[in-house]
Amino acid sequence: MTNRVVLSALFAAALVCLPAAAKMKVKTQHQAGNDCKQYKTYEWLPTRTSGKSGIIEDDPKNTPAIKAAINAQLQAKGLKEVASGGDLQVATFAVRESSPHTDALIYAWFPDYYSGSYWSSGAPVATLTSFSHIGTFVVNLIDTKTKKSAWVALAKDTVDSDKMAQQKLDKAVNKMFEDFPPKKP
Fold this sequence. Notes:
By secondary structure, the chain is an alpha/beta fold. It is built from three helices and eight strands. It has a single domain (3-100, 132-179), classed as Double Stranded RNA Binding Domain, CATH 3.30.160.670. The protein has helices spanning 3-17, 63-76, 162-176; strands at 25-30, 41-44, 48-51, 54-57, 80-81, 88-112, 117-143, 148-158.
């Protein structure tokens, strides 16, 4: 399975498994029977972020923050970054989507001067809507020998601004790597 197929499957799983909520949701999963303590080095694949024009690889705006947050966690766990030939490949994907929702429907009530009551046309005359901005972040650590995911983490949370996205990225990565390496192989 290629890295792109794995990332696509993980992204689809993120949308199904983690419903939009006000509190950050983080899920991790590792390959059964795989001892993640065996890995000593890692290398980066291009980071992928979703932008207005589609998927952007190594976005100069987001990549430094993504790499800094993950490098700090992996190095704290004793892994060393190498340019190539690492035990693990780090693949990431980040997307921020806008989800509209209806806050209120406003109906007009018109007076009936003959009966003294009111009537409505039955259809709303105005709809008040707003948008929730949901950020999804995926980290996939791929075993370079087997070409399979050794460990995967997904985080999803509301993200209303770029500043908030940065703060929540750091929090998400910290929370993700609490479970790395997994306690049970």
